[in-house]
Write a structure and sequence with these properties.
Layout (H helix, E strand, L loop, with lengths): L1 H11 L1 H26 L1 H4 L5 H43 L4 H42 L11 H28 L2 H6 L11 H23 L1 H37 L1 H4 L4 H10 L1 H27 L3 H9 L4 E4 L6 H5 L5 E9 L3 E5 H6 L2 E5 L4 E5 L1 H6 L1 H4 L14 E5 L1 H6 L5 E7 L7 H14 L15 H39 L2 H13 L4 H30 L15 H26 L6
Helix pairs in contact: 1-5, 2-4, 2-5, 2-6, 2-20, 4-5, 4-6, 4-20, 5-6, 5-20, 8-9, 9-11, 9-12, 11-22, 12-20, 12-22, 12-23, 13-20, 20-23, 22-23
Length: 600
């Protein structure tokens, strides 16, 4: 019987449950995808640098998990509000509270379990797609990769299973504690709205100051670091809440006093609807604004990282290619690059010292880049002889065994007198590193083959090799790119679902008001217009504040990105389009509930 009542309850509220279901399914799909890529053995063993991307996906999993907890708690509280009248009726018919708790537990767990199953199936597909895109972007080869990852699936079920069990107990407990009369009438109980002008002004001032502190911390995140993030999070949430509360009450009270606005069509009805629940909307609008900023910020930053790989690489290296023992390399392969700089330096070495011919550096000055000003400075052999610190700059261009030796510059005569074998080091620059990347990659691989010691140390002993730095940057930024995009998508689904739940939770109560308006002769077009305006305000307010949060919040990425605002219109347009779709869906669902059948 309990099972039958649970299934009946789900069917009766299937439309509302589908909103929760969609959010949970997307969250679990992305959770699985992050875990699958971060723990996939074939992917991790494909390249040493790819492990950096795996760490980023693990971080994304943690962040997604935290936001998912908040989402489920909010969404389920709204869902319980929709169902509590039904539970109250069952209690009036004699059902025990323990049985009601079992029904609630089953309903919550069934929806959660089904959403997790669907999410895992979708996650397997997402993993396959993201792996393909990531492998192409990282220019690596992954053998025997499988999008099905049993470990990731188990972690997904464990995390969401525990979350649903806890949520089910919370839902059951909240219903059991409330008297039947409260369950029946809670949604219709108006909240007293007291307007204190002085208090509103103080709230506005404190809200603006709080936001200012939060934005300042984000702009100087490099200075304040984790402390700045913690302060920014608290002050921005507080500032958003106070501004929504103060400005909403103030604006609504002003608009209702202006007859030209309030008496036009159904504006007074819409304003009264918003005023009726203003305190409840303040909390949800604050949360939606923060999630909106996080979602849009994640997508914006994620897509912004597309251009950072090459920019970061160009800033980090002076030469485009380093060839150790270049006498072993076919000169035609180097000539095919059409190098703009091709300097070859002779080397001789014993057990403790690495010798260079200073006269060769006089003819072909060594180039070094100031990484702050990005200015290239030429150093001659004379400069190297006079300043040992300049000679030390060559240390990182050698092989690992050469990097531990003393560097010494000598004249041509002294160099020729050394009874040691001669090798060559060739430093090359090209006109366009990106276009020459395929040829450079082959030469770097050949250079590693000719110098086996370069293959040790996870490749980080070749920090002067531009291609190696390109791989490291590409792995790092590609991980951020995919993580940001999919986190943004998950956050968007969650925030829109929460806002939809909040609006739809009052739909049954509002139905009587709309039916009354229809009975007194109000045109259906005016009723639909009132719905569009009311829901439009609830979507627009957190959207505007969320955009402001993003514009200031991007300042915290200026150390990682050369221009975090570059091409910002692309992610903004994409996000606003998706957000508008949720607005339209909410209008349609709400309208189908509250509008009398004959008016549609």
């Amino acid at each position: 019987m309990i099972w039958k009542l649970s299934m009946t309850g789900i069917k009766s509220r299937l439309r509302d449950y589908m909103i929760l279901f969609s959010g949970l399914a997307i969250a679990s799909a992305i959770f699985y995808m992050f875990q699958s890529i971060a723990t996939n053995k074939a992917f991790l063993e494909s390249s040493n640098t790819v492990k950096m991307a795996a760490v980023i996906f693990q971080f994304g999993t943690v962040l997604l998990g935290i936001i998912t907890v908040v989402y489920i708690l909010y969404a389920n509280s709204f869902l319980m509000m929709l169902r509590q009248k039904t539970y109250a009726m069952l209690m009036m018919l004699g059902a025990k509270t323990s049985k009601i708790a079992q029904i609630i537990f089953l309903e919550t767990f069934i929806i959660g379990f089904a959403a997790t199953i669907i999410g895992n199936l979708v996650g397997i597909g997402l993993t396959s797609v993201v792996n393909y895109l990531l492998v192409n972007q990282l220019e690596i080869t992954v053998k025997n990769f499988s999008p099905f990852n049993l470990s990731a699936m188990i972690w997904t079920f464990v995390f969401f299973g525990i979350l649903f069990i806890v949520t089910a107990f919370i839902n059951a407990g909240s219903i059991m504690k409330k008297p039947i009369l409260q369950l029946l009438k809670e949604q219709a109980m108006p909240k007293a709205l007291k307007i204190h002008p002085v208090l509103l002004v103080l709230e506005t001032i404190v809200g603006v100051i709080s936001l200012g502190i939060g934005y300042y911390m984000l702009a100087h995140i490099n200075q304040y670091q984790l402390f700045g993030i913690a302060i920014a999070l608290v002050t921005i949430v507080l500032g958003s809440y106070l501004l929504f509360h103060a400005i909403a009450i103030f604006v609504l009270s002003i608009l209702k006093r202006i007859d030209a606005i309030s008496m036009r069509k159904l504006n007074n009805f819409t304003l009264s609807q918003l005023t009726f629940r203003i305190r409840e909307y303040t909390q949800i609008l604050t949360m939606v604004a923060i999630l909106f900023a996080m979602a849009m910020g994640a997508i914006t930053v994620g897509l912004g990282f597309r251009t950072q790989t090459l920019e970061s690489t160009n800033k980090s290296a002076t030469y485009d290619l380093i060839l150790n023992n270049s006498q072993k390399v076919d000169t035609s392969k180097v000539s095919a690059l059409n190098p703009t700089v091709n300097d070859t330096y002779s080397q001789k070495e014993d057990e403790t010292t690495l010798y260079y011919n200073a006269d060769e550096f006089n003819e072909q000055p060594f180039q070094d880049k100031d990484f702050q000003s990005q200015k290239v400075i030429n150093y001659s052999g004379k400069d190297m002889l006079e300043n040992q610190q300049l000679a030390e700059k060559l240390r990182w261009y050698g092989t690992p065994e050469q990097q531990n030796k003393e560097i010494k510059f000598v004249s041509t005569e002294e160099f020729n007198q050394l009874a040691l074998p001669t090798t060559n080091m060739e430093l090359i620059s090209v006109s366009n590193f990106k276009e020459s990347l395929p040829q450079i990659k082959k030469l770097v691989e050949e250079n590693t083959t000719n110098n086996p010691s370069l293959a040790t140390g996870d490749g980080f002993n070749q920090t002067a090799q531009k291609y190696v730095m390109y791989q490291i940057s590409n792995s790092l930024y590609s991980g951020f790119q995919f993580m940001g995009f999919f986190l943004g998508l998950a956050f968007l689904t969650m925030l829109a679902s929460c806002l939809m739940f909040k609006i739809l939770s009052s739909a049954n109560t509002d139905k009587a008001r709309f039916q009354m308006l229809r009975k007194i002769g109000t045109r259906p077009s005016l009723l639909k217009g009132a719905i569009r305006k009311e829901i439009g305000v609830l979507f627009l307010l957190p959207g505007i504040l969320g955009i402001i949060h993003v514009l200031f919040g991007l300042q915290m990425f200026k150390e990682l990105m050369s221009d975090p605002y570059h091409g910002i219109w692309i992610p903004f347009s994409l996000f606003i389009f998706l957000y508008a779709i949720y607005y339209v869906i909410t209008v349609v669902i709400y309208g189908s509930i509250v509008l009398p059948k004959e008016s549609e």
